[in-house]
Every structure is written in C-alpha cells, then in structure tokens.
C-alpha cells in the first residue's frame, strides 16, 4: 500500500499528508482551493484536479472533509470515491460524521468491490502535526489490519472499534466527554477570575491532580494568552454535538449536559464566533 489519495486538505489534513509522505507514501491530493495547499504540493504531494482523479488507481483513499453532506458528496456522487476507486482499494473516511452514513458508505463500497473504514480522529491540529492522533476505526478487521501502516504514519493511539459505524459512534463518545471537560475547565477559569485568584497559579495547582485533563493542560493556557485561533472550529464542534445528540435521541437517550453546552456554542456562533477555536467558549462567561 504505497499509493494514497487524500481528499480534504484542511488544518489537520495538511499535517496528515505531510506525515504520510514522511513515512514514504506517494500521496495525491484534492481539495476545493488549490491555492491553500501550494506549500504541501511544493513538498511533494501530487495535485489532482478532481476527486475522480485523486481516487483512481490508488491503494488507499482517505477523506477528511467538513460535514456529513460533504462526506456523502465525496463518496456517493457520480464521480465520487466509490465510483472512481479501483476494485480492492481501501477507502477511509476520517471526518467526524454520521454513523448511519458510515454504514451506508460501507455497504455501497462493498457492493463496488471496495473495503471501507470509518476512522475519525482526535488530537486536534497539534496531534496531526506531531503524528500522534488517536484513530477510531470501524469496519472489517481485515481492512483495518491492512491499513495499519497508513494509520501508524498519522497516529499513535490506533483503535479497532468493531463493525462499520462504530468508529463514528466512538467519536461521538469522545465529543460528549470533551464538551463536559472543556466547559468544566472554562467554568473553573471563570470562577477563579471572579473571586480574584491568579488564573495561572490556579491552573498550575489543579491541572496535575484529579481535576486534570487535556483541556486543562492544552486549552486553558491558550485562553490565558487570549489565543482563540482554531485548532478545532466552533462550527465543527457544533456539528459534532448535534450528531451526538441525534444519535442519542435515536437510542432513546437524553443527554441534558450535552444539549446545554450545544446551546452555549450556538449562542457564540450567532454572535459571529463560529470560526474561532473551541476555547472561545470562555467568551460565553464574559
């Protein structure tokens, strides 16, 4: 598996492409705006003018795009990945998307002689750059095993979650837990400021104990620097939380905390902050 097509070269995708090339893979790329990835092309990625061209004659085709509607278009369109990939290829959607859509793609790919995995990631832009992403894969175990060297070029914590759709379901669990952890960290910071604590001393004091989390370690320091640049966009987190809430409802489960946090982020988006990073949640408390 040496030839890879990569569709959707955004904030995380760029670093993932670079790590695949460092691992010795030949990587062809397609994204909507070529000008935004001229740096990756200059480093050796092969530009393709269409999805069809990027998917054709590749051992593996990877996608990481924005929304489920984009995933559907990329895979199931007339000249999409399923119609264009060669028989026997592995197609891997690494977007956080709908579990039900992942199952549909798996079934249509199998009918076309392809192997499909849903393999969303966690770790943000820093994990993508470092090649330390957590990868959550659903689909056939044989396909997962065959693609393991590809995953190892991009991540460290690589997990087989079971049948098609399970990768996405596991990512929903991650986003549910993340929403609570990030809100807790922001509320601790808001409280510290309200009662006159030094925020950095507070952070140093509690972040290595029972209250510690990746949010305390990685996100709150960015808040203290008033750095709201997106490692992960608010608009994409809203999408993820809506997906999780819909899947919970379909399982007759109500997630009240998730719904409340979703409402907080939607308020920020209405105030024009949808393109800031998720750490901008602190602005809700201001």
Task: Give a topology summary.
Blueprint: E1 3-7, H1 11-22, E2 26-30, H2 38-42, E3 46-47, H3 51-55, E4 60-63, H4 68-76, H5 81-84, E5 90-93, H6 99-111, E6 115-118, E7 121-122, H7 124-130, E8 133-139, H8 141-154, E9 155-162, H9 166-194, H10 199-206, H11 214-224, H12 234-250, H13 256-270
Parallel strand pairs: 1-2, 1-4, 2-3, 4-5, 5-6, 8-9
Antiparallel strand pairs: 6-8, 7-8
Helix pairs in contact: 1-7, 9-11, 9-12, 9-13, 12-13
What does this structure look like?
The protein is of the alpha/beta class and 286 residues long. Helices cover 52% and strands 14% of the residues. The protein contains 13 helices and 9 strands. It has helices spanning 11-22, 38-42, 51-55, 68-76, 81-84, 99-111, 124-130, 141-154, 166-194, 199-206, 214-224, 234-250, 256-270, and strands at 3-7, 26-30, 46-47, 60-63, 90-93, 115-118, 121-122, 133-139, 155-162. Strand 1, helix 1 (11-22) and strand 2 form a beta-alpha-beta unit. Helix 9 (166-194) crosses helix 11, helix 9 crosses helix 12 (234-250) and helix 9 crosses helix 13. The chain starts with a strand and ends in a 16-residue tail after the last helix.
Characteristics of this structure?
single chain, alpha/beta, 9 strands, 14% strand, 286 residues
- Uncertain stretches of 5 or more adjacent residues: none
Task: Tell me, briefly, the overall form.
Answer: globular
Backbone structural class: alpha/beta
The count of DSSP E runs of length 2 or more, i.e. the number of strands, is 9
The level of helicity is 40-55%
Number of helices: 13
| Gap between N and C termini | 51 Å
